[in-house]
Design brief:
Layout (H helix, E strand, L loop, with lengths): L2 H7 L2 E5 L6 H14 L3 E6 L4 H6 L9 E4 L8 E6 L2 H12 L3 H8 L2 H9 L3 H16 L4 E5 L6 H5 L1 H8 L2 H17 L6 H14 L1 H33 L3 E7 L3 H16 L4 E9 L9 H5 L11 H33 L4 E6 L8 H13 L6
Parallel strand pairs: 1-5, 1-6, 2-4, 2-5, 6-7, 7-8
Antiparallel strand pairs: 3-4
Bound molecules: adenosine-5'-diphosphate (ADP) and magnesium ion.
Magnesium ion binds next to helix 2.
């Protein structure tokens, strides 16, 4: 199934890969393709380059969905949302809290305030939380999920499980023990490792902090089921037939390595993978450079004294580009072998300049969808 068919028929496309390869721009471009194909499409993005965010009207934080105008001739809709991890966590708390009092208790808890900004893996976790919300809302025919640059492929795929693990009953029990035993048995049982750590923390941060820590874990224990259910639902979405993963790579050794790793991980986790997008590939013809064509009319106006050195430099630049293109080609072949015959690979050239606005996305869209010459 090629990219055009994917944007027309799937409900969720997930772009994965290492940082800087073009996940965000590819995700936005695929969402544009979805809208052009007549679907209500949302791109859920995480770290768009500032210029791209600005030109799409995404400068605001706070998980608001922004509609990007494409003109009256386009039947579908293009929406974009930039994730803001701390406010997502607040939204989740609001949803799983039993009542306003419980919600406020968490909001005002100092531990919560501290972790909501820095909870490790919060970006990945929040991406899946948001995904869950927009997926079940039914507002979109197609969601394209951009993912954060990850050092380790597992970070993203396991992110929903991470908070559940963080809230693991064992850990909570460990933290809660001193408080509960203190309540039941009095000070006598302030013994054992947990108690020692607790006393130490108490010395460092004060008794008040300790109280808040216990309140935090007590409250989160109540939320545990809610988190677990959402985690399972996201796991189901990720392995559903309506979903396809796209591995995005650039022709560099580290990026190809990460892409190979993703291919393995996705297969192991039964996540349906459609193909590989090899982005930012240098292209160069093997023919000697046509200086007249390169320099245009200025070629004829060259000073006869300087002409040989200008031509030599053009020739050298062309050779360097050809070497670069050949190296890129080797990496393309390597990744193609890793992807195997089951998956397609799409090679996208490096476009001059950056892709930072709708026109740039349309340019990339051309290569992704229309330019079948480069698909394999
Ligand atoms: N095919 C391409 N040609 C030229 N520049 C590109 C291409 N794809 C992406 N870029 C540029 O590369 C940079 C990184 O892209 P981005 O989508 O933010 O990567 P990621 O999300 O994987 O970190 C951006 O400046 C973007 O404009
Ligand atoms: Mg990105």
């Amino acid at each position: 199934m090629n990219l055009q068919e994917l944007v027309q028929t799937r409900k969720l496309l997930v772009c994965v890969g290492s940082g800087g390869v073009g996940k965000t721009t590819t995700a936005a471009s695929l969402a544009l393709a979805g809208a052009l194909a007549g679907r209500r499409t949302l791109v859920l993005t995480i770290d768009p380059a500032r210029r791209l965010a600005n030109s799409l009207g995404l400068q605001e934080f706070g998980n608001t969905e922004v509609r990007i105008e494409l003109g009256p001739e386009v039947k579908g809709e293009l929406w974009a949302m930039m994730l803001d991890a701390p406010s997502t966590l607040r939204d989740v708390i609001r949803k799983v809290a039993k009542d306003d009092a419980q919600r406020d208790a968490v909001y005002n808890n100092r531990i919560f305030k501290a972790i909501s900004g820095s909870f490790s893996g919060s970006q990945e976790y929040m991406a899946t939380e948001r995904l869950y919300d927009v997926h079940i809302s039914g507002r979109y025919d197609l969601i394209v999920l951009d993912t954060p640059p990850v050092k380790n492929a597992l970070d993203f795929l396991e992110s929903p499980g991470r908070l559940v693990k963080f809230l693991d009953r064992q850990i909570m029990k460990w933290f809660l023990t001193p408080l509960e035993e203190d309540r039941v048995f009095g000070k006598r049982l302030w013994l054992g490792t947990a108690a020692v750590v607790y006393r130490l923390l108490g010395h460092i941060f004060g008794k008040e902090f300790l109280g808040e820590l216990s309140v935090f874990f007590t409250l989160f224990r109540d939320f545990y089921e809610g988190f677990r259910e959402r985690h399972e639902a996201v796991g189901k979405i990720f392995t559903s037939d309506a979903t396809r993963f796209l591995v995005v790579a650039a022709p560099t050794d580290p990026s190809v390595e990460v892409a190979r790793f993703f291919l393995q991980e996705l297969a192991q986790r039964s996540c349906p993978t459609a193909g590989v997008i090899m982005n930012q590939v240098h292209r160069c013809s093997n023919n000697p450079p046509d200086v007249e064509a390169l320099l245009g009319s200025s070629a004829r106006a060259l000073d006869p004294v300087q002409a040989p050195s200008v031509l030599a430099r053009v020739g050298a630049a062309h050779r360097r580009l050809r070497e670069l293109a050949n190296l890129d080609q080797q990496r393309v072949e390597e990744l193609r072998r890793a992807a195997g015959s089951r998956l397609w690979m799409k090679v996208i050239p490096r476009i001059s300049g950056e892709v930072h606005d709708l026109a740039g996305l349309r340019g990339l869209h051309h290569y992704l969808i229309e330019d079948s010459v480069h698909s394999v």
